[in-house]
Write a structure and sequence with these properties.
This protein is mainly beta. It has 2 helices and 15 strands.
């Protein structure tokens, strides 16, 4: 009986040591080159728009102290080294002191953001309990000399599987105007912060995705969503 008890205690001790070692190995194993950090915080910040309006862009804070102004590529499939070469201006560093976030951009200039101040909001991942609006629109414009380029992008979620996407791009000059339209259909799925579009012509695209927020405490709000780093507003 005494011998069995000793064996039992030895097995229990060995099991505890193995579990602790496995946990330590998992916790301390460094990320591979180009691999995304295991934890990230999503926000969106207010930025100046054209001509005097305000728009918003999503930002991801990584646990290693870096931040990224989100673009088309979802963070789940992001190659960090490649992204830093292709979009160096989108990267910077961050820190938090009390309730204020300090973001230092690629130029070394630091800006402060604070929840509840009107310039910094949490952004949320999608989950299947959320009902998206039927249609969303993004509008942007750029001045090129005496002409203005206007781009209108729309996406409609027909149901929980099918979508229709269209773009209307035009150039407006003092004496002329030209427009180009296109339209695509297909099926879609959303997994957290990733929107997967499967087009009718066989193409497939992954785009970053996030939900806006409202209320205090903040909750997901479908009146504004972010696709590929751009803010889309729900159409009534």
């Amino acid at each position: 009986m005494k011998k069995r008890k000793i064996i039992y205690l030895f097995v229990l001790l060995l099991y505890t040591v193995l579990i602790s070692a496995a946990f330590s190995l998992t916790r301390n194993t460094p990320s591979l080159p180009g691999e995304i950090q295991s934890e990230e915080q999503w926000f969106f910040k207010a930025i100046s728009g054209y001509p005097v309006s305000v728009t918003f862009e999503p930002v991801v804070l990584f646990e290693n102290g870096e931040y990224l102004e989100v673009g088309i590529t979802p963070t789940a499939s992001l190659n960090i080294e490649k992204s830093k070469m292709e979009r160096p201006k989108a990267w910077g560093t961050w820190k938090k002191e009390n309730n204020t976030f300090y973001l230092t951009n690629y130029k070394g200039k630091t800006y402060d953001y604070r929840l509840g101040s009107g310039n910094w909001f949490p952004a949320f991942p999608y989950n299947h309990d959320i009902q998206l609006a039927r249609s969303y629109k993004n509008t942007s414009s750029t001045d090129v000399g005496s002409a203005t380029t206007l781009a209108i992008s729309k996406i409609s979620f027909i149901d929980n599987q099918h979508f229709v996407e269209g773009n209307n791009i035009g150039t407006i000059a003092p004496a002329s105007a030209a427009w180009k339209k296109n339209k695509h259909t297909g099926t879609y799925t959303i997994q957290g912060h990733t929107l997967i579009l499967s087009f009718a012509d066989g193409r497939q695209e992954e785009r970053s995705f996030a939900l806006g927020a409202s209320g205090n405490p903040a909750k997901p709000d479908t009146k504004m969503i972010f696709i590929g780093g751009d803010a889309y507003l729900a159409e009534k």
